């Protein structure tokens, strides 16, 4: 049914695939790993997975992790396709490889790296990242777990002083890990030295039971991440050796002398690493949702035209409005994430190899905004794709609910999105000051802050959309700055008077950044895909402006006619996307097994797929007469007495 749709595509599919994955080598590696998942019986799509108990899901996930470890390098820091391809459960080792090891590489001394790195990589020292507490998450500096140095024994006494200080939410803590990277307030001779990481054993090597003085468990069911053992942990004056403090940047001698060296902000390094994965790899889940929704919208026909022929729902303009702006935004985020990965890797290498922190501020700001923007987009995209598929979108066999559930937690974890936008806002204000005082110090991505106004003949051209998005963010940043400065108490103003304006300004930066990356991809990387990418980029830029043009309206930079032009132009571009929609989602190279959707196969009868699952594979139907029928009789008996 879909072959005719594929033939009408107007661009080379393989070129687009290479652009999506950042190059031919990366795409080939993706296909290679996907083939492993497609062909191994442990990873075949199992639509009855959600009938399993959480306990059985966790055990199945652990078994899958062992199989994957035998064939794939799950420690590969450059590519996390296993989690993208096997999304019925994030592997047991994800936090260990994506957060603990990068933290060690940044925070541990050379001696500690030599002692532990091999053990970490082969899982003989399997750990979790224990930072968040019951009472404090984003506010890292006010964590309450303490590590008090005892000069008599040359040990740190790790203690949970109150219920709020209980470590809460670390993945791989609840059931599996034997070690924990515990973030605690370092106290020496009664003086506090801030929050620092301590690498400590928390479970017995032989019995796997928590060590004396430590209480550990799983926190229970959650929205998403059902198979991840997010845990809790508290300490009762637990003693850890002197070398448990990761000491590349701070050292405590045996006699209690504290010596600092390097930049104290280095702790952000490992968290940046995980945020980069959220932006780079997990953004792909939006593409998965769009592939399902677009294919289903081509299979599904509703109502008849004048010739008594049923109409594919993707031919309806309202369905296109639901999906095409999201498709454009997916491509924008993909191209933005490629640049972000370059920034993060450059910053990480500078810090770990050269002790160079010159890129830290820029990288932290862009990554904060991108994590906030991309994670919200992915969850929102999954939800709209689910809604666009009508009733079948609600069923797990569609492959859509799991994307929404598994991606929604990312909005909060590794930095709550509002907090991250405010951190970006702080950097925007700093660069706004530099525009006046040190213009040469302003990074290229932030030079748009010098914009005041623009006279544009065509508000829908690529270059003018970039200008308008920059102006929008610049004006909102200046508005937020004025609001902030209008109060004498800056701290109170930030917290209670101008936070909304600051977050609003920051939220408009990433659309501008994405647009820059989109245009750069079109101009410098695309060849025979330029035309279709230009259409997508225009739809993206127009959509971002229509969604939030407050900064332009504040300065009367858009007229009512401009707004009508933006709306009309976007609608006029939809037919081009309609012709190429299937090819645009299939450029991701996702197999049917990866999509795990009965409503969106590459070819086949979607209705027969759904019926066969319900009638033959749904384990709830294995009993011809379910035990629950006994309760129906009891209900009748109760009702008879009323």
TrEMBL record:
Residue stretches making up the Acyl-coenzyme A oxidase N-terminal domain: 15-124
Domain of life: Eukaryota
Subcellular location(s) per record: Peroxisome
Species lineage: Eukaryota, Sar, Alveolata, Ciliophora, Intramacronucleata
Catalysed transformations (reactions): a 2,3-saturated acyl-CoA + O2 = a (2E)-enoyl-CoA + H2O2
Domain Acyl-CoA oxidase C-terminal: 462-632
Gene Ontology BP terms: fatty acid beta-oxidation using acyl-CoA oxidase; lipid homeostasis
GO MF annotations in UniProt: acyl-CoA oxidase activity; FAD binding; fatty acid binding
Cofactor: FAD
Listed name of the protein: Acyl-coenzyme A oxidase
PANTHER family: ELECTRON TRANSPORT OXIDOREDUCTASE, PEROXISOMAL ACYL-COENZYME A OXIDASE 1
Pfam families, A to Z: ACOX, ACOX_C_alpha1, Acyl-CoA_ox_N
Organism: Paramecium sonneborni
Residue ranges annotated for the Acyl-CoA oxidase C-alpha1 domain, each copy included: 268-429
Family: Belongs to the acyl-CoA oxidase family.
Cellular-component GO terms for this entry: peroxisome
Keywords: FAD, Fatty acid metabolism, Flavoprotein, Lipid metabolism, Oxidoreductase, Peroxisome
InterPro entries, per database record: ACOX_C_alpha1 (IPR055060), Acyl-CoA_ox_N (IPR029320), Acyl-CoA_oxidase (IPR012258), Acyl-CoA_oxidase_C (IPR002655)
């Amino acid at each position: 049914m879909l072959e005719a749709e594929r033939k009408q595509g107007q661009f080379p599919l393989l070129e687009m695939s290479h652009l999506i994955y950042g190059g031919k080598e990366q795409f080939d590696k993706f296909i290679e790993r996907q083939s492993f998942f497609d062909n191994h019986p442990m990873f075949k799509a199992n639509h009855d997975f959600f009938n399993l108990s959480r306990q059985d899901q966790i055990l199945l996930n652990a078994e899958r992790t062992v199989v994957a470890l035998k064939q794939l390098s799950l420690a590969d820091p450059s590519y996390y396709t296993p989690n993208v391809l096997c999304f019925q459960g994030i592997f047991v080792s994800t936090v260990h490889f994506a957060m603990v090891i990068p933290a060690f590489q940044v925070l541990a001394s050379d001696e500690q790296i030599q002692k532990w790195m091999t053990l970490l990589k082969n899982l003989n020292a399997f750990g979790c990242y224990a930072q968040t507490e019951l009472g404090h998450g984003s506010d890292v500096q006010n964590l309450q777990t303490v590590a008090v140095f005892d000069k008599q024994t040359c040990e740190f006494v790790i203690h949970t002083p109150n219920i709020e200080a209980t470590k809460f939410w670390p993945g791989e803590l609840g059931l599996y890990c034997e070690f924990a990277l515990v973030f605690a307030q370092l106290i020496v001779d009664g003086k506090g030295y801030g929050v620092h990481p301590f690498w400590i054993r928390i479970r017995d090597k032989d019995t796997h039971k928590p060590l004396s003085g430590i209480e550990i468990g799983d926190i229970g069911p959650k929205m998403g991440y059902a198979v991840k053992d997010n845990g809790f942990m508290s300490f009762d004056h637990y003693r850890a050796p002197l070398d448990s403090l990761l000491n590349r940047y701070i050292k405590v001698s045996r006699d209690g002398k504290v010596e600092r060296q390097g930049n104290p902000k280095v702790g952000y390094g490992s968290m940046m690493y995980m945020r980069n994965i959220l932006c780079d790899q997990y953004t792909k889940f939006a593409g998965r949702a769009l592939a399902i929704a677009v294919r289903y919208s081509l299979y599904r026909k509703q109502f008849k035209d004048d010739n008594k022929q049923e109409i594919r729902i993707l031919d309806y303009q309202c369905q296109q409005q639901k999906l095409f702006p999201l498709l454009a935004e997916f491509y924008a985020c993909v191209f933005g994430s490629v640049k972000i990965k370059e920034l993060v890797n450059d910053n990480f290498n500078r810090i770990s190899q050269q002790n160079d922190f010159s890129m830290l501020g820029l990288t932290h700001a862009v990554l904060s905004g991108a994590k906030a923007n991309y994670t919200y987009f992915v969850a929102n995209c999954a939800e709209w794709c689910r809604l666009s598929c009508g009733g079948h979108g609600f069923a797990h066999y569609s492959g859509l609910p799991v994307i929404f559930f598994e991606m929604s937690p990312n909005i909060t974890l590794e930095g709550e999105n509002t907090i991250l936008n405010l951190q970006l806002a702080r950097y925007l204000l700093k660069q706004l000051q530099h525009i006046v005082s040190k213009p040469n110090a302003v990074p290229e991505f932030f030079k748009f802050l010098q914009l005041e106004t623009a006279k544009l003949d065509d508000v829908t051209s690529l270059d003018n959309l970039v200008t308008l998005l920059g102006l929008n963010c610049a004006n909102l940043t200046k508005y937020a700055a004025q609001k902030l400065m209008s109060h004498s108490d800056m701290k109170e103003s930030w917290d209670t008077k101008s936070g909304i304006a600051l977050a609003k300004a920051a939220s408009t930066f990433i659309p501008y950044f994405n647009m820059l990356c989109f245009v750069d991809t079109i101009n410098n990387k695309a060849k025979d895909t330029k035309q279709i990418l230009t259409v997508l980029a225009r739809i993206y830029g127009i959509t971002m402006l229509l969604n939030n043009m407050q900064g332009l309206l504040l300065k009367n930079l858009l007229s009512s006619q401009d707004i009508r032009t933006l709306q009309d132009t976007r609608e006029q571009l939809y037919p081009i996307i309609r012709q190429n929609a299937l090819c645009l989602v299939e450029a991701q190279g996702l197999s049917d097994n990866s999509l795990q959707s009965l409503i969106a196969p590459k070819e086949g009868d979607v209705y027969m797929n759904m019926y066969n699952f319900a009638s033959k594979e749904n384990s709830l139907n294995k009993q011809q007469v379910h035990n629950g029928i006994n309760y129906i009789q009891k209900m009748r008996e109760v009702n008879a007495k009323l």
